[in-house]
Amino acid sequence: MQNEAVKAKIPAADLLVKCLENEGVKYMFGLPGEENLALLDAVRRSSIRFITTRHEQASVFMAATMGRLTGKACVALSTLGPGATNLVTGVAYAQLGGMPLLVITGQKPVRRSKQGKFQIIDTVRMMEPITKYSATIPSAERVPSMVLESIRLAEGERPGAVHLEFPEDIAAEMTSASVIKTEKVRRPGPDPKAIENAARAIERAKHPLIIIAAGANRKLVRKQLKNFLDKTKIPFITTQMGKGVEDESSPLYIGTTALSANDYAHRAIEHADLVITVGHDITEKPPSILTPEKHVVVHVNFSPADIDTVYVPTHEVVGDVSHALWMLSETVRPQASWNFDYFFRVKNAFEKSLHTPALDARFPLRPARVVADIRAALPHDGIVSLDNGMYKIWIARNYMAHEQGSVLLDNALATMGAGLPAGIAAKLLYPAKKVLVVAGDGGIMMNISELETAQRLGIDLVVLILNDSGFGMIRWKQEDMQLPDFGLSFGNPDFVKLAESFGAKGYRLKSTDELRATLKQTLDSKGVHIIDCPIDYSENGEALGAALRKELEAI
Predict the structure, then answer these.
(1) Half-sphere exposure (CA, 13 Å, Cβ side) for 400?
(2) Deepest in the core among 73, 293, 328, 384, taking most CB within 10 A?
(3) Is residue 296 within 8 Å of residue 275, measured between CB atoms?
(4) 158: cis peptide before it, omega within 30°?
(5) Structural domain for 212, as ranges
(6) Are residues 311 and 387 in the same domain?
(7) Tens digits of residue pLDDT in 336-353
(8) Residues 500 and 380 in one domain
(9) What is the Cα–Cα distance from 106 to 21, expressed in whole angstroms?
(10) DSSP reduced 3-state for 351
(11) Residue 554, Cβ neighbours under 10 Å: how many?
């Protein structure tokens, strides 16, 4: 009887994997090293799918994107030293972007090592400033509680990155510790008095406006948001990372704040006397400067506002956002004194501005034509995964998003190199959906090796490379500062041959009319496809500057 009561012992590596399975982890991305081979073998024997990437940075981009789309923490794995340092950009991407992520790094034995300080850096301290939590697992018995705490922190509002260092000798340690079973924690609703104060302020306004931001895109708030919009008929704009929370074909959609200022959406914000921000925080590039001097600001979010010179809320409704929107729908009484005429003049002027550029037949292609063709080629539930560059502004501004999670862009860290890994992760998660990666010739080369990963996985993916032989966004800024063109040009490989060398199919566009047809053909085809599309950004300064200001003056 006494022997039966003794629980069988298993290695800590096996226990850690069981804890991850218990938390619902489905994927792990990474490049292992000798220090985490025991963990890798435990993953091999588990239900978790391990995907080897070609660079640790890409593995974190993929895991973070899985977390972004599901709300559940995904895992990226690396070895110590250079493997861990290669994770840093991706960890910061997840942390600033509000994406739940767990990174696990290997380490030499902590009790007895025969290699001195070879490859040793203080990984835990390195990760501390860019994570919600960073720690070394000190013993096998601590595995269940530390994994649970890490996942809870990663997934809790505001979501972000956490890090666990797993030394080689701890991974091999035998333990009878068990997985900790927990119940899902429900987020509290907002205070009724806060709802009442916000509702009365909204009713007193003459020109209320809604800004939908990244926090609303992280959770299932669409139903209650639509109910609130349907009842109040208050127009809305979105931040770049708020695109798709509400269908942008809505008659209430005014636009997206893609530029920092002086665009159609900013005209609407300037006219508003009250702004309801849904899911906004100052980590995303500010849609506009919202201060008490200009607006009454109603902050609706899971967490209290971080106060900054660009964002000073008048009222704060803190709690589950979906619940808050339901309570506001029940409390706010639509007012006959509300006047949205100017907002809809802005909307009409913006929509009119899209028609002519969408028919532009010049070659190389102009960005507005590229956006129009992408929208025409993708179905409503298709996913566009953006790298970071000039085209991101054009797509955020001109591309109408219809579904939540259909536009993957980064307006927090705004890092280059993330578009292709994010697109691969989206396709793994939603194999039936069309996924298009849009990247510049600068960003695509930063993680071009992941084409092999996509090809190896056998996924269907289209990568549109916008080729201007330079860093187009920075060149635009350089021109705006009236500085000479310097330091931003480079040469490119033959992208068609490069695609073929990876076993993918390559296409080089030679006329404007080819883009839409090639997009539709490749999106409907099996395999990985690379489209080399020449683009001309030379009119950025005029189109987003003097010409735009002239159009705005006419509203």
Answers:
(1) 20
(2) 73
(3) yes
(4) yes
(5) 192-344
(6) no
(7) 999 999 999 999 999 998
(8) yes
(9) 19
(10) helix
(11) 7
